[in-house]
Design brief:
4 helices; elongated; alpha+beta; Arc Repressor Mutant, subunit A; 3 strands
């Protein structure tokens, strides 16, 4: 299963620890180098879908200033899906880099730093 970029960064943001929604938004923006700006509606729809798919779960809920803050945690299935996507991306990048090197595009390191 290919992960869309927002899903990739949502799952990646949850690899170290559970985060609440705003924390996921901030982490995804940082991890993507600022390219990904998730809006709350988009984020929470994605979090609900990913929970339905078993890739993450609600870890806990806390009341903060009278509002419920829900923390999400990556599941083992989520980590497996993310790892598979990393390997797919790595393989695709290796193929593209090899073809670009053959074309003579400068600045591409060989696989393994050679």
């Amino acid at each position: 299963m290919r992960l869309a970029e927002p899903t990739f960064f949502i799952l990646t943001s949850l690899t170290d620890q559970p985060l609440h929604g705003y924390g996921v938004m901030q982490a995804a923006r940082e991890l993507s180098g600022g390219r990904l700006q998730l809006r709350p509606g988009t984020l929470y729809a994605a979090l609900d879908r990913l929970a339905e798919d078993g890739l993450l779960v609600v870890d806990r809920e806390e009341a903060v200033d009278g509002r419920l803050r829900r923390y999400y945690r990556l599941t083992d299935d989520g980590a497996t899906a993310l790892a598979a996507e990393v390997e797919r991306m790595r393989a695709d990048a290796t193929v593209a880099a090899a073809r670009l090197r053959r074309r003579g595009v400068p600045g591409l390191a060989l696989e393994g730093g050679r």
